[in-house]
Amino acid sequence: MNPWTVLGIAEIPNGGGELKLSQRGEEFSIRLSGVRGELMNSRVHNSEQVLAELGCAHLSSAKDAQVLVGGLGMGFTLAAALKAVPASAKVTVAELIPDVVEWNQGPLGACAGNPLQDSRTRVHLGDVAGLFKDAQPTFDAILLDVDNGPEGLTQTDNHGLYSMAGLAAIRCAMRPGGMLAIWSAFPDDAFLTRLKKAGYKASSKMARARVGKGSRHTIFLAKKP
After folding, report:
1. What's the mean pLDDT in 87-110?
2. What backbone torsions phi and psi does residue 10 show, to the nearest 5 degrees?
3. 24 forms bridges with which residues in the sheet?
4. Which domains does the chain have, with CATH numbers?
5. What is the pLDDT of residues 47-84, one digit of tens each?
6. Burial annotation 184-203 (CB, 10 A radius, 16+ → b, else e)
């Protein structure tokens, strides 16, 4: 078996640890320091695609739709969002770590079909939460694949994003009828209740890491009335 080759190491802000990008043949892996196993693998991305498909399902024929993707990762959510929306749409992807953007502009980008090269894509380098401060109703869909879901793994600041105040700020940034979709490694009944208390029509769906098999992940869907 071919050995893994390290392509890059990135520091996560505010002491969140290190991300390490490695390649073996056509397979890519991102690992987080101090955590066993992989954080992401280019062969395992079905639930990330389902996140975008469910979050953008109402936009298949919407003119000039605005979509926000929180977290670039390996680009699979962004690529699926671009596939789900019309040519007139604009998709902004917010990524906290500059190295991750650079990785996706390099060899890693081919895994998801180089979505950063799509003319509809806009990159916001920084915390996605910054886009919700004093925001006007801008987005028709917001897709969050930030950290590990409502229970943050690398950034304790992400807990604020999923708090009542954070969910209210996100709601203000969405247009009426907009959809908030959140990827999570685990189900969370308490978070589902929090979404409803924050004024959303909320539900959750299970998505496999691979089509028909692999780990079970949770997609929270929260519609703004």
Report:
1. 97
2. -125, 135
3. 27
4. 45-223 (3.40.50.150)
5. 999 999 999 999 999 999 999 999 999 999 999 999 99
6. bbeebeebbebbeebebebe
